[in-house]
Task: structure prediction
Amino acid sequence: MARTMAEKVWEEHVVRRADGEPDLLYIDLHLVHEVTSPQAFEGLRLAGRSVRRPDLTIATEDHNVPTQNLLAPIADPVSRKQVETLRKNCSDFGVRLHPMGDIEQGVVHVVGPQLGLTQPGMTIVCGDSHTSTHGAFGALAFGIGTSQVEHVLATQTLPLAPFKTMAVTVNGQLKPGVSAKDIILAVIAKIGTGGGQGYVIEYRGEAIESLSMEARMTVCNMSIEAGARAGMIAPDQTTFDYIRGRAHAPKGEDFDAAVEHWKSLRTDEGAVFDAEVVLDADELSPFVTWGTNPGQGVPLDASVPDPASFEDPSARAAAEKALAYMDLAPGTPMREVRVDTVFLGSCTNGRIEDLRAAAEIMRGRKVAEGVRMLVVPGSMRVKEQANEEGLGRVFEEAGAEWREAGCSMCLGMNPDQLKPGERSASTSNRNFEGRQGRGGRTHLVSPQVAAATAVRGTLSSPADLVSL
Amino acid sequence: MEKIDVHTGRAVPLRASNVDTDQIIPAVYLKRVSRTGFEDGLFAEWRQDEDFVLNRPEYSGASVLVAGPDFGTGSSREHAVWALKDYGFRAVLSSRFADIFRGNSLKGGLLTVLLPQEVIERLWETVEADPTTEVTVDLVNREVRAPGVRESFELDDYTRWRLMEGLDDIALTLRHTEEIGAFEQNRRSWLPVTL
Ligand code: SF4
Result:
């Protein structure tokens, strides 16, 4: 029978199947960070259990880490405690850890792919919802809760309920200045934050195939904002070229064998998805959010919507509440919305290509008066590469703060936060109330829009800038 | 894990949709490394408002949360489940839950029950009219009961059995260690290792 890619990967990992029970799936790679793991390790210890496969496990420090003065002890005692607990747990249980300052340290979803640990056809989990990022390689990758983290540590497996499949086909080609972020924001605005619920989404179509690996990661990353379990993109030459030569990629004949297998993972001709959504890339333009969930977005050319225009009463109420929180009046052109802060970073848009795209726009320009811009690379390796390419200098000369790697203002667990009432343009993935700091207001944008916004001080696209 | 069969308790009407996990427990509470004591973080932002429903004396001690649609969206933090449980909730009723939250709750022994929105609305009205109203969540018969409400709900047999037995997943899986070992023998040799 014709099968989808997600079904193939699932089938290959079934350790045990029994009537009336969820399938027991083998997990190929388990990513660990300091926030969702302490209680899992505590559980192991209490039960006298060990980590079954430390060699399929890797940890990094990301959510809590400061992005400046790395040599000083972490000021916040609670953050420090989480990081220290991770260090102790990794050393007690024999898990490889990339601590602050290490060249491979960074946001967990940037680290896996850059090391070549993320490969097609794998099952990958992490106690973090944006694990969907790794689906860009054709892996089945999803976020899990802490008790599941404990379960994977102890057994390298997970009992899992089946999912449904959804195809999101993006036809045509993106116009210049429109990016992967705009695709996924448009998808979420179209299907809603609950639209993907219960599904693994496969992104396909010409526009997706033309994306680089990093852009594909941006798309898959935000599958979770559409409510989906995971997002996937079929592996192709772009994928193979990206993996080849990385530290943990298969070598020599193994690589050829791997590619052979990876090619077989594509969704079969005639396979049926439980749901299908189609978008035209040529119709997309830079997208920004106006509200407090990622589905509340419009093209940058549009205005803040009027809640009265929503037919569904709960959507209308949600819009009213969001506009009150965001302090926005209906009808205000999005381009007139002034920001205090621009955040470029996160596992959505903190990779080298994102930094290149933003630097391209910032080169020779200045961050607007009164605006603070934080550029936070996704990993220390990304930072090193950016410095080699001179991107760090571009940001600094423009007046932006060029920081160390971590999650940073994506969720504000470290000192990088918005103050109450402050407004940001952020390349991260969530605009929930208080996400970037209590009372902070977030507009989700692409790296290109973030850069142009930093220069003009109001939400802008590169096309709005006076040419140099 | 505590066994659940039939739970009866007073209920709190939470008239809000899309309650994401950042609202259930803000990120700042995630910094702890312990497994208990998260009740102070539950809806911490909203509880600053003295009119917030959890702050009203008539709902103190309630153990059933009746929430709007799309409860538990957002980040996968299991702390949201711990906070609800530590605060004293045994069951959450809603017409739609976010997947990860629902999975976390059922594993953690917090019963999340799917009911039609129309039933949720009726429960809200009943409980608001009389906050001493008791709501029964009956896992044995897969049924929710309250004055004027008798509604069955779906929950797969396996999850129901686990919750009723109070069984932890790891113990269950470790009974299949041999099968896991056999699977590992057949994994492709070029798959990556971290060490
Ligand atoms: S960058 Fe943001 S979304 Fe990504 S893992 Fe860190 S906190 Fe989560």
About this structure: Strands of chain B lie at 6-14, 64-67, 91-94, 111-114, 134-138, 143-146, 149-152. The CA atoms of residues 93 and 113 of chain B lie 5 Å apart. Chain B has a mean pLDDT of 94.
